Amino acid sequence: MTLTCEAQAASWKPDAQPQFCFFRDSQALWQGWSSSPELQLPTVWRKDSGSYWCEAKTSDLRVTRSPRIQIQVQGVPVWNVSLETQPPGGQVQKGEKLVLVCLATQGTGDITFSWYKGALGSNLETKTQRSLAAKFEILAVTESDTEKYYCVADNGYGPSISELVSVTVRSPVSYPVLTLRAPGAQAVVGDVVELRCEAQSGSPPILYRFYHENVTLGSSSAPSGGGVSFNLSLTPEHSGNYSCEADNGLGPQRSEAVPLRVTVPTEDKKELLASEILEGLLGTLAPSIMALLLCYWLKKRIGRRLARDPCRSPPSPMSQVSNYINSAAPLQEQSVYENVNVVSGEEVYSLVYHTQQEQQAAGET
């Protein structure tokens, strides 16, 4: 607000330098007398309402006074109040600081701010200050601070209330517990085993993952918290250690490992052993079998060629001729072996010739 003091020139001599002073309710404003006929008040409040006038004084100490005027400062009501949270969005982790900021778009004078918790309005704090914004802090939130909040601002022209703002305090999940439930006392091949994973605490939603020897089996979500189950149809390969993991976005937690031994029935054991032996034999003897088949095929082929070509037929047994050494007595057959072949099974066919030389007569050369 600017106050201007105007005086007629006839009131003083032309060379006179007047001084001016402004008053409100009989009290001089600012520094008192000044050569400037204007006075600027940067900010006025309702308390600045009152009766104003000014005086002009010349060098010969002649003083003239203006008529009084009444100035009424009108306050602007608080309007458009809102509540904001820090961090934004109303999501805060357990143990962190929560700041509730109450804001007014406009309003003059001292404004009283109040914060409330819950729809029924449990008062948290009230403060008065000359500004359009005020803060309320909760240094370390707990799960009980999850609630709806609102604030009220009033500068004497009537309260203005903000909308409700939801605040959710989220806590990390605890270490989950894994339990295995089999139909009988022992887990047998073909049984369906239930894997149950549950974290005792932690803000939902919670995502659970199941592992067998650190290999992921599957996952399931719990939108409202609690635990989840995963069913597994057992095979002999399912023996080993199992674990589960819980995660709600604030850091995953892994359970302790739980061992599971899958029992194979006797009949299944025989079939499994036979299968394993067959697989082992096939893996080990496959090259040998292929080689034998190749040899058999080649032998058959060569046999067919020999049957078509007489010159290639096997040699006939050796003709035996008696040999004599200066004696009419023939030589005894000695053992000679040839053409020993495995024909089939364990039968062995041989051609044997036996010759033996008789003793020479005494005195003969």
Automatic annotation (TrEMBL):
Subcellular localization, as worded in the UniProt entry: Cell membrane
A Pfam family hit: Ig_2
Domain Ig-like: 1-64, 67-168, 176-263
Transmembrane feature ranges: 277-298
One GO cellular component term noted in the UniProt record for this chain: external side of plasma membrane
Molecular function terms from GO: transmembrane signaling receptor activity
Biological process according to GO: cell surface receptor signaling pathway; immune response
Keyword vocabulary terms for this entry: Cell membrane, Disulfide bond, Glycoprotein, Immunoglobulin domain, Membrane, Signal, Transmembrane, Transmembrane helix
Principal location: membrane
This protein's name: Fc receptor-like protein 1
